[in-house]
Design a protein that fits this description.
Largest sheet: 4 strands, antiparallel
Number of helices: 5
Number of domains: 1
Strand order of the largest sheet: 2-3-1-4
Oligomer: single chain
Structural class: alpha+beta
Number of strands: 4
Order of helices and strands: EHEHHEHEH
Radius of gyration: 18 Å
Distance between the termini: 24 Å
Length: 124
């Protein structure tokens, strides 16, 4: 299993991305509104960022969505295809960052992953 993390800069693509992931079999994800370093610095009084740059972010509370999902190893290629189809090439500026981390334990997911039992199942 993997924890898929997508920091989505193209916030306009969120709806199509989530629909695409769902159709592709990725049924669970958490979406968190998030801010990058530039946005956070722009809101700080002591920031070294110029006033004109701060004005770009004046009306926004966040500039990214962070999407988290526990996926099976074999689902990574599917996720990447959906992301590229709905968001675009992540190598282009201001699109997003996608990475995974290994997951050695997960509980509370709707689908039981092979080889992992919940605490309740172990008691039975």
């Amino acid at each position: 299993m993997k924890l898929m993390v997508l920091i989505l800069s193209r916030i306009d693509a969120l709806e199509n991305l989530l629909e695409g992931l769902s159709v592709a079999g990725i049924k669970g994800a958490t979406v968190i509104d998030s801010s990058g370093m530039a946005m956070t610095l722009s809101k700080m009084e002591s920031s070294i960022i110029s006033a004109s740059f701060k004005a770009l972010f004046a009306n926004n509370d966040y500039d990214n969505h962070t999407i988290l999902s526990v996926i099976q190893d074999e689902q990574l290629d599917i996720v990447r295809k959906v992301v590229y189809r709905t968001v675009g090439d992540l190598n282009e500026p201001n699109t997003g960052i996608l990475f995974t981390l290994p997951v050695d334990f997960a509980e509370g997911t709707k689908k039981r992953y092979s080889g992992i039992q919940t605490a309740q199942e172990e008691e039975d």
